[in-house]
Amino acid sequence: MKTPATASSILFKVNRREPELIAPSKPTPHEFKPLSDIDDQESLRFHIPFIQIYRHDSSMQGKDPVKVIREAIGKALVFYYPFAGRLREGLNRKLTVECTGEGVLFIEADADFDLQHSGNVLQPPFHFLDEFLFDVPCSNGVINCPLLLIQVTRLTCGGFIFALRLNHTMSDGVGIVQFMTAIGELARGELSPRILPVWERQVLSARNPPMTTCIHREYDDFTTAIPFPLDDLVDRAFFFGPNEIATLRSYAPPHLRQCTSMEILTACLWKCRTIALQPNPMLDMRMIVLNNAGKKFNPELMPKGYYGNGFTLSTTVSTAGELIKNPIGYGLELIRKAKAEMTREYVQSASDTLVIKGRPCFPMEGTFIISDVRHLGWRDVDFGLAKTLNGAGSMYNKDT
Fold it and tell me: One of 64, 110, 284, 382 is an active-site residue; which one?
């Protein structure tokens, strides 16, 4: 199928072949694997896209990226065979993977698109993503649908684009990069991934009986109403370098200037977004920061090779009026305090709370969610064909 598309001022066509299923290249176990209670919360029951852009390299000479990656996916699924299965929902909405070996969706494509003349369309928010990651009809359900959709698109300049759509209940950014890295290692001729996958989702499951022992404002009782039309929102990319971060930090009070770049940037975005939305001054505005729990504790909470959702949520709340009228240090202090409260017991309490409350969604009204994906290793994913030019993953693609 051919699709004409416009990215900024660039007109190009994408020629896709019919989607196919790639199954594990060797027989795999037929078994049932429950997700963790962090995995199967309502807020993760959607599909999330990622994209990697590779410029032509002399190492690609004589190699077809589609063929190389297709074969490597089949090999990787031998190790990551739950990805080739389908999700089933059981008692109390508990999600379990039935490891059926059916496979993941794969699309081979060609585009008359040249990276050398692409201008700024390679920068987030990647308005052309739908062309390089086709939404196969009836494939984006959470239950009984393929867990991964991958499209590899050859470009006229000799480069290629690797795009992937993931059922978020299965993995987070760390987990999917681990899987993509395994595909790259097998594509380069390795016999097995350097880091072998580990399931063990029980490490982030609720106790029996579950007990809420900490405060989790991210799961407050709430209304699902969204106070503004989503089509009023506009996607824009903002780039912050060292000079911009230093300027923001200069607005923080002296005792908070040792904060991280992400903390000061989060405080700035929280305040600016609240001003832009013009909410009722008494409305509670939640700031939810995603933290990688896998690197937080010593000894580590999750085993090496774990590829499930391994993040926890640090949540702080302020009324819109207080957030707007106070300097940036006000929000910054709230954010740092919330992050400091994350302990092993906090993580366990979060799993328990999700079960007690029926696996709820985040509050919609007044909620802003942010995650730091800079250090997940996107640029290091190497299929043995070329080095990545750019890559991006939206860890949460709903503006709430």
Answer: 382
- 400 pLDDT exceeds 70? no
The reply to whether 168 belongs to the active site is yes
Neighbouring C-beta atoms of residue 214, cutoff 10 Å:
16
Question: What are the CA-CA distances from residue 372 to residues 66, 156, 265, 386 (Å)?
Answer: 30, 33, 11, 25
Contact between 78 and 26 under an 8 Å Cβ cutoff? The reply is yes
User: What is the average per-residue pLDDT within 123-147?
Assistant: 90
Could you tell me how many residues make up the chain?
Answer: 400
Dihedral angle, C-alpha 160, 166, 170, 171, nearest 10 °: 50
Cβ atoms within 10 Å of 1's Cβ, excluding its own: 10
Give the type of residue at 204. L
Choosing from 47, 168, 216, 372, the catalytic residue is 168
Distance CA 44, CA 298 (A): 27
Average pLDDT over residues 38-55: 93
Q: What is the mean pLDDT of the segment spanning 289-305?
A: 88
Tokens 């681990």 locate to 178
Q: Per-residue confidence at 395, pLDDT binned at 50, 70, 90?
A: very low
Query: Does residue 382 carry a catalytic annotation?
Result: yes
Tokens of 270: 């929280």
Using CB atoms within 10 A of its CB, is residue 258 exposed (0-12), middle (13-18) or buried (19+)? exposed
Q: What is the largest CA-CA distance in the chain?
A: 63
DSSP string, 256-318: GTTS-HHHHHHHHHHHHHHHHH---TTSEEEEEEEEEGGGTSSS-SS-TTB-S--EEEEEEEE
Whether the bond into 49 is cis, omega within 30 of 0: no
Cβ neighbors of 66 (< 8 A, separation 6 or more) are 108, 152, 154, 160
Question: What do you get for the CA distance between the two ends of the chain, in Å?
Answer: 35
- As to burial, measured by CB atoms within 10 angstroms (0-12 exposed, 13-18 middle, 19+ buried), residue 268 is buried
